[in-house]
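Hi U.,

Before I forget, here's the chain from the pilot set. I'm dumping it here mostly so it's searchable later in email.
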Amino acid sequence: MRMTTSDSVNILTKPLIINGLSIKNRFILGPMAVLRPTDDGRPSEQTIAFLKRRAQGGIGLAIVGGSVCSERAWGESPFTPNLRFDKDEFVNDLKRLTDAVHEHDTAIFAQLFPSFGRMGVPRKGREIIAASSKSVDIGSNGLPDNLYIPGGRVTPYPKEATSAEIKEIEESVVSAAKRAKAAGFDGVEIGAHMCYFYSSFLSPLTNKRNDEYGGSTENRARILRDVVAAVRSEVGTGFPIGIRISVNDHSPLGQDASGFADVASYIACSGLDFISLSDGNYESMRDNVPSESGNMLAHGEPQVFRKALGNNIKLFLSSTPDPRQAAEAINAGYVDANMLARQMLADPDYANKIIQGRENEIVWCDHSNSCLRRLMINAPVACHKNPEMGQEDPKAKKSNGIQNFIVWATGNKHLMNLADRAIRGVRKVI
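Structure:
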């Protein structure tokens, strides 16, 4: 029998305890590169207004993304600007951000991002690095609805990271965690998902190394085990630390949920408190950005992670806006909280509307993915279902007419199919 509305509300509003931190409910705002910080990487008034608006909307936890914690990541980012955690002088600015969110009894975590890895952009003569020299064939296993890449796109080949570079990146994460704690963040999440630096070590599909960071499951987990342990040593015992990892390559030659869960089990003992589950990557974007609620549950991936990790590691579900699906998954013990991204752009009051029995008033994301197309062209991210989104601070910069046209055109299937044929035809001639 399907769970009743009142039952699902009771489950979703139950507090969650993570390493002594009490989070008032199970609604989590997932990290997104939509915060539009200042050009030098400080939180802008729009950054603060966006997060504060979601806190007012009832979420229990916000995870701040679109951020970097090293000079390397700042320089190679495919989108700009980012929120910076690599400079001591930014701590006071970040404190303004955490204070604004805390006003609404909402916890806030910082996502620590030291390198974009295979998705990085080589600039100023600096090479990008990853576990092994393997490029990304974006969308090779399918793109999300309403997202097109005419002619396809393959990223540059990265250089295999040296042991010294790995330790340098680890040190940047530790330093950033110290700054995040000083700025009032309640916890940190280390980004190791999609096709970014840390994620490249976790799967045999992208890790071809023959040293202590490659080969066996334990070796592939070593880089994250080490950095989690180093962060734990820096921030102490009573501060939540998590990782965001992909749970399935969704590739014929890739690693499945069982393989990723085995990797995670080696990391868990190093001082880990939670895992944010992310399905697929840039080569399987259809699975990473689904149009159906609960795809991850249908694939059985949270269930596999729970079996491998037990109940001590908290698991955050993603891409499940249907509140009953999320509540049923929590009630079954598969996950501990529900983390949403695009739905929180469409309706910042999503959590309150569920809590208050106003589910019929929710503005649902329609998965047109115009927000992603805006991000891809580095335009201010907006949502056509929510005119307020991107203008939470009335003085925030809007996209211009040319950018709006490009967003429309790149979502037009007919135009994009013509562009794809034209580009592929030119390549054949060349």
